[in-house]
Amino acid sequence: MARFLLGFYVTIFVLFLLAPILAITAGSFTDTSYVVFPPQGFTFKWYFAAVEQQTLMQALGLSLALAAGSATLATVLALPLAIAFHGSGSLLNRVIYVLAMTPAMLPAVFLGLALLIMYSRMGFGGTRWSLVAGHVVMALPFALSLIAVGLSALDGSLERAARSLGASPFQAFLRVTLPMIAWSLAAGWGFAFMISFGALEVSLFLSTSTMVTLPVQIYSWLDWSPLDPALTAISSGVVIITLAVLVVTARLVRLDRFLKRGSV
Amino acid sequence: MKAFSRTRSRRAWPILLLLPLLFILVLYVAPVLNLVSISFSEHSLKEGVIPGFSVGNYARLMHDSFYFEVLWRTIRLSLLTTLCCAFFGYPIAFYLTRTSGWRQTIMFIVLLMPLVTSVTVMSYGWLILLGRKGVVNTLLVKLGFFEMPRQLMYNETVIVVGLVHILVVFMVIAVAASLQSINPALARAARSLGASPFTAFRQITLPLSMPGLRTGALLVFVLSMSAYATPTVLGGTRVKFLSYLVYQQAISLNNWPRGAAMAVILLIATTAILALASAYGQFRAQRRQSASETATSTMAPERAGD
What we know:
The structure holds two protein chains of two kinds.
Chain A: H1 2-28, H2 45-52, H3 54-87, H4 91-101, H5 108-122, H6 128-152, H7 156-164, H8 169-198, H9 201-206, H10 214-224, H11 229-253, H12 256-261
Helix pairs in contact in A: 1-11, 2-11, 3-4, 3-6, 3-8, 6-8, 7-8, 8-11
Chain B: H1 2-38, E1 42-44, E2 48-50, H2 56-62, H3 65-98, H4 101-116, H5 119-130, H6 135-142, H7 156-180, H8 184-192, H9 197-208, H10 210-225, H11 229-235, H12 242-252, H13 256-295
Antiparallel strand pairs in B: 1-2
């Protein structure tokens, strides 16, 4: 009985979590010229309509490139930080680690405004480099924490064995450690990608009229024609891209590792 | 040999650490400190930011009742969101520890999906569900509960629903982690000694999962205090969050110093509430400990929770 009740509750909760996603997907297939429920007919025409909208496609292209680029940079920067923190928990290393983790906890508008003001003063406000820098700052904590998971799951005796057999520290790292934490690098990249791809607030501060990311584009579109099926089509495109990255990342991480750490 | 390798790696690491460290200091720490310092400058329409030191922005905000109303709403709804996440997420965390394999993986993916999907897209989903021509209204009218569609959007409840939807994953994972580390024999022992399932849960399982609840609550509270898109889209023009006022001051009104002061207060308010909560937690733990020490020297039931 108790098991049945729990199963019932879990089902309801899963429905709650999926409801907005399902609504968007269902809305994008309607044959009518506005989103209506229940959807009338079944058509892919709004996906083609969205593809033909140049502003949308430009925003999508920018968001994809930005997410891939800043995820890569964040992973490259996070790797030495994670190794230093794993290698020695000295005060300095701990301070640096915590500092690199704070952007995830800071109010997004605080971060956005701080970056906007300083990057303009430094002379690259309004360029795509300001967006890249901002997204790397934002994505860094996620890459860092996942690489840290990979390192903590590592058996240090293997690297020591390689060292005792004559490998230099660099060789031992490259041939032994790196292949064993490759999955966590990939997972960190995946999470960083999703965070950057979905980010609104920081982009809202750093965007210019000619340089608009997809979440900002959708956000401003919500104001004037929220019932446009093309908007549901592009939104479900975002859902599909995110889901694909999430499923691949989930397979890499073995998500039950989160349970051992207690946080995302 | 060992000492040798250690000095070698000590020399090598600073070079590799230099790049990320520089990046963090120049492109993250410097902007944050700069924002704090700008919040102490004045602003004029003609010249923009006027360098100098004044607490004018903070003083003016202290007398702004509208600002306080929004700050209070942000705090109140964030606390409510945290409570709802704990209440509704706890059974899910329990389920997560009792299941494994593909079911567990799918549950994780479903929980993470609202968080990692763009927050604009999620808010848009709620708009479609709850709008006047939305799914819920259509359904309720067809079933005869409503005579005509009602306004379900643009109120405080809907903001909490949207925030719980995105943030509950933090609570679930934190609680599940602490539930997993509890020895199941403890609850079984309580049951065999005659405790009802509810008593066993209240006296054994719940106190032992407190660390997870605390971690989850911290994350959910901090993130909902700083939420921007969800309250802005779902709350409309009337029900605003503090983050929106920051954006409005800094971008729409172009008053950077005042926006900066608001952002700093948001951060201070969040930190202050967390500090208060943790101080209260410590106070209760101490009182509980001294109470159980004086009460009896045999096994007091509270002991299980310490």
